[in-house]
UniProtKB/TrEMBL annotation:
Gene3D superfamilies: YVTN repeat-like/Quinoprotein amine dehydrogenase. Its main location: nucleus. It comes from the Eukaryota. It comes from Nothobranchius rachovii (bluefin notho). WD repeats lie at residues 1-38, 39-80, 81-113. Residues 134-268 form the U3 small nucleolar RNA-associated protein 13 C-terminal domain. It is found in: Nucleus, Nucleolus. Residues 297-313 have a biased composition (Basic and acidic residues). GO terms for cellular component: 90S preribosome; small-subunit processome. This is Transducin (Beta)-like 3.
Amino acid sequence: RRGVWAVCFSPVDQVLASSSADGMMKLWNLQDFSCLKTFEGHDASVLKVIFVSRGSQLLTSGSDGLVKLWTIKTNECVKTLDAHQDKVWGLHGSHKDDKIVTGSADSNIIVWEDVTEVELAEEQAKQEDQILKQQELSNLLHEKKYVKALGLAISLDQPHTVLTVIKAIRQSEHSRDLLENTLLKLRVDQKEALLRYCVVWNTNARNCLDAQSVLQVLLTHLPPEELLQFQGARTHLEGLIPYTERHVERIDRLLQASMFLNYMWQKMRVAGAASSVDQDEEMDTTPLTQTQPLFFMDKDKAEGSSDERRGSDSDGGQDEDPDCCREEEEEEVVVMEPCPSL
């Protein structure tokens, strides 16, 4: 067991917090004196402990020179303040819980201010600004103002949004000239960001065509000296080479397979034309629908076969039963022949 350095009562509950030399803090129930929670995180003795945030959090200081903020509900350390070089012996919080004061053996006293609300307000303002910019970007794309849309997307530093604008440009009419004119109107820093995004897009086969289209414009119209002045240009270009080679090999295999398929299709057409009546007639490749019958009945042959049977029966079978002959005459003979289309 190690010594207990500090204790503090909760301002809202019947709970006591204690800190000891074993590097742990504990919460104790004052009714039955049971241990409710244990907090571990300091590398040395915990010298001070206080309740903050209306009893929902703990603030501790230790011999390791660290000040830690703990959330009681989750047992997690949500913030670590590292500004002292020696043991932090003094720790005190204001009544409003907006400031704390720490004193250390390094002869420094530091006043800390709670900026949680300020950070939340900044984050909320940032999200609102992002929403407004996204709406403005949608309006610019709808109005086909691609230069402003691309510049706004790059300012948001969102590669996926920039890719959406590039795809919209490539899907429009006269996409090649439009993409070239749009990219050349960008600033130097925007072109630099676009080159960095192309490295990411080129790693995906779905987006490689968009990346290669942008690279073609940049590499064609920008001199090598200007490209090399971009930050990390050599690294980006080296990262583009292996994926580009992989895409080219994949396209070559696809082209070879398509040419083989086209060759086989031409041979099938020639073979089909040779077996048909006319050499110049193209083979009918329309699929056989369900409305076309596979077989048909030749009624003339059926009637002829019936007459022959009746004639043979009348010549050689006079002793046979007339009723039996009548039943045979009433029978319908059906001859099945394949359809000419087959």
